[in-house]
Records
---
Amino acid sequence: MRVADVPDPVVREPGDAVVRVTRAAICGSDLHYLHGKTPIEPGDVIGHEAVGFVESAGPGVTRFSPGDRVIVSFDLACGACWFCSKGQTALCDDVRVLGGGPFGGSVPGAQAERVLVPAADVNLLLVPGGLDDERALFVGDVLTTGYYAASLAGIAPGDVVAVVGAGPVGFFCVQAARVMGAGKVFSIDPDRPRLALAAMVGAEPVDPADRHPESVLAEATGGRGADVAIEAVGSTPAFERAVGVVRRGGTVAVVGVYAGETAQIQLGVYWARALTLRFAGLCPIHAWWERALAEVEAGRIDPMPLISHRLPLEEAPLGYELFERREATKVVLLP
Ligand code: NAD
Ligand code: ZN
């Protein structure tokens, strides 16, 4: 991971906009490049969480003008295909991921001074006047992803919800579950500082080294287990934990990213337990970000406790080290 000078992006297609980035963030998904879970080419610009202002826009951009403060969506959709018309923008025929390497369509990313956003009318969202950049920043990815995961899980008022993983995505799953009327929300993670953050926004922290999560959830529900579990890690043990803590007839929503992992599933057990599994895929940010942003504006979802470090863009490699070592919960880069 290094910082280098690259050519400034320029508008090429009529729908393109160039955004001058004022805040970018390092995401758990960026670590997948370091760990080799997602491929990347040497010299690729990564980063997909950003807020900034429009610097220039092609003639086809009708919703934004230079100077507008905007949030960038991490997944880039065309806005015109069958899937996009159904709000399934992450399943778009032409879906790409900002800074997502060859699998993401090789679009240069947003941990940079400037980023080119294709189909800007679709892939940008205006930041409301009163909202500062840092509160808006995560709406383009982890915040809205947490909101989407909680929605996908179909939380009914009073439900007992277990969120496996208390990273940034889990942190927002907790807040979204509460907004959606969950009775109790349990946050399960072996990382103490992250558990403390989840507790700060209303979760009951469960460190598996202290207490067996299956027992904790059973005790909280008259022996049944959680109504809903959200898997916000992306590993086989986390998936198995989510399935383990949920009750018969419960729902497991899987928002953690999977690539080559496998799990042995005894179909009869899933069948007899009448489990509902919902795989999130990439979050269709566009379908959810206005709702998620409204919750931030109303103060019902608060991103600020998550930010542990602010670094100039030049120090991005240090930010990656801190995040990788879990000394940082969320690193914000200032280009
Ligand atoms: P992160 O790596 O910062 O956090 C993951 C957390 O999980 C850590 O706190 C870790 O201690 C915890 N953990 C690891 N193994 C665990 C286990 N077995 N049980 C409980 N906790 C465990 O990542 P993040 O930014 O919070 O993202 C979480 C996942 O969501 C990643 O896989 C990321 O790629 C994915 N993600 C998905 C989407 C999407 O569109 N579906 C969007 C953003 C992020
Ligand atoms: Zn599309």
---
Amino acid sequence: MRRKLAAGNWKMNGTAASLGEIDALKQAFPAPGCEILICPPATLIHRMSERATGSAVMVGGQDCHWQETGAHTGDISAGMLKDAGASHVILGHSERRADHHETDAIVRAKAEAARARGLVAIICCGESLETREGGETLAHVGRQIAGSLPDGCTGTNTVVAYEPIWAIGTGKVPTLAEIGEVHDFIRAELVARFGPGAGNDIRLLYGGSVKPVNAAEIFGVANVDGALVGGASLKAGDFGGIVAALENA
Ligand code: PEP
């Protein structure tokens, strides 16, 4: 049985004034029926993890370097995230693949670094609109997960997030059949590569314009084990609606 996960990606949003959202989540979900994770900007990880202590809310990073230390100005390592209180790290988000030219090989190296430091890697994949319209979605996603996931992935060290680029921050969402098709495909790929045990244990999140209003129907799709949420994770009220939908799924 895969435990459901509601993960929030705050991207480059949030200052100390936003930490009250964690208090609101803690209060609303003292014993949630799913896992709750917030990935704030790196500047807030330590304060947020201290604030979340003793609650079910977990804190994660949005990226890490593949090396542990060294001359990489502006970067942050998996060990540093762990030291700051993170339990998870998002890797290979489409915004990083686009803005920072991250390849599948780079994402894979980062996932290995995350695992070495005991962080759960949330590895993102997803197609552009052009790729979808060209009928290449499954081939593209298949290549991304083959190249970005290291060997030895299990349900405890890895989560996969399917995020169609054209659905991120746009209010556009694939049909439930389209989401189901890709999630079933990813599940089959994971089982083929990692075996039925690990392949069936790795959780698959859907991401792309998930809101309280559409969450329940998305969570009803087979092989959707939760969501990676951007905009609607910034306010505890909105994110709480998504968490509640997941608890009831
Ligand atoms: C994301 O960027 O991970 C995301 C899913 O964003 P949004 O929910 O805002 O579409």
